[in-house]
Specification:
CATH architecture of the largest domain: 3-Layer(aba) Sandwich
Strand content: over 45%
Radius of gyration: 18 Å
CATH class of the largest domain: Alpha Beta
Length: 232
């Protein structure tokens, strides 16, 4: 239910020439860093924002660091797009996941092929067949977590696939991992992508369960924490 980073250093954000790299000042040197979140993140990556970087163990890499977290006011936001799947994968296997009895035997498989998509997780427990799609959330506005921060046709496609799977007897979930603490609720971002909001509402009415959890975020750690109210 948590992931740990190694060799974390602090820096000051300068610029982001494209979705994949950022220029960061580290101890007075300008470093080119890999950005692990390809969303817009305009409200996060502001000039002189404090960022936290993980140093790569690969000396042959073109970028020495990965940008994994940023300070937004008093809130620390994890920006690692791969982290939500890692913490949810551990959560699904643990005895703390409320979707299963603590001692219930289960099989969890990542990257499950269903229809024309790869759904993040497939699970079996007794006669139950479970599909779960995971979405990381880094956008916060006035205490409300929102997804997506940029239009995502992939997200729309996956939710539609889950709605279809419900009609075929699967137990389906969309899990929003809010990569910060301090939000009051989660809601789909109808301003950025009305279609995703509509599709998610329709899927929920068809039986897809929509969950949101926040996270404890430290410079070197991400911990899946507590449920967040979902407002559709």
């Amino acid at each position: 239910m948590f992931m740990k980073y190694r060799k974390i250093v602090q820096g000051s954000f300068l610029t982001r020439p494209n979705r994949f790299i950022a220029h960061v000042s580290v101890d007075g040197n300008i470093e080119v860093c890999h950005v692990k979140h390809t969303g817009r993140c305009r409200e996060l990556l502001l000039p002189e924002s404090t960022v936290y970087l993980e140093e790569s163990d690969n000396p042959a890499r073109k970028t020495k660091y990965d940008l994994v977290a940023v300070k937004k006011g008093e809130i620390l936001v994890n920006m690692d797009s791969g982290a939500p799947n890692k913490v949810v994968g551990e959560w699904l296997k643990s005895g703390h996941c409320p979707l299963f009895a603590a001692d219930e035997e289960r099989k969890i498989k990542p990257e499950y092929k269903y229809g024309n998509s790869r759904i993040d997780f497939y699970g079996e427990a007794g006669t139950r067949k479970i599909l779960m799609e995971v979405k990381g959330v880094t956008l916060e506005e006035n205490g409300v977590a929102r997804f997506p921060d940029a239009p995502s046709e992939r997200a729309v496609k996956h939710v539609k696939e889950l709605e279809k799977a419900v009609s075929e007897g699967y137990e389906c979930y969309v899990m929003f991992v809010v990569q910060m603490k301090g939000v009051s609720c989660f809601t789909p971002n109808k301003d950025t992508q009305p279609e995703f909001c509509q599709v998610l509402r329709q899927a929920e009415k068809a039986g897809v369960k929509v969950l949101a959890y926040d996270c404890q975020v430290r410079e070197d750690e991400l911990l899946l924490s507590e449920p967040v109210e979902v407002c559709l």
